[in-house]
Amino acid sequence: MTPGVQTQITKEFSQLLKETFEGPEPTGPSAFLEKGTGLFQTLDDIPAEIASAQARAEGSTIAAHSEHIRFYIDVHHNLLLGARDKINWDDSWRIKTVKAAQWDTLRQDLRRAYAIIKEQLRRANSWGEDEISVALAIIAHTAYHLGAIRQILLTVQPQAQT
User: Fold this and answer.
1) Mean pLDDT score, 133-149
2) Closest by CA position to 68, among listed 86, 42, 92, 100
3) N or C, fewer C-beta in 10 Å, the chain?
């Protein structure tokens, strides 16, 4: 890969990672159709009781999706560091409901995990197969769960207001 292509790939992935988590810039183009729809923008105004509500019986909660995303990022961070341990994905869904303080901590932990992986990718001398794979996986995976979270929110918010 030429240095110019490497620089462009790094820039594009970094921008898309930022938009997925932090949200798109208020003006200008975006991969997301709506402004204010990044993961953190979505989670910031959700109270613990909404984060703990199920949209359907036996369904996942916003808190569960949020913890799963945090776990997923940590796994990929560790993979970039060389870890090859067996992963117990069931552990990523262990949180179902949260109280206010737990919800605040979960969101802080998610932000921390994001900041760590973002910095790890930023510091990479060049992006090889591992960095590209991790960035793609985190972006796609988080976008999927962000959509699920936004759907749950649409469903449970009216229930909480009645």
Assistant:
1) 96
2) 92
3) C
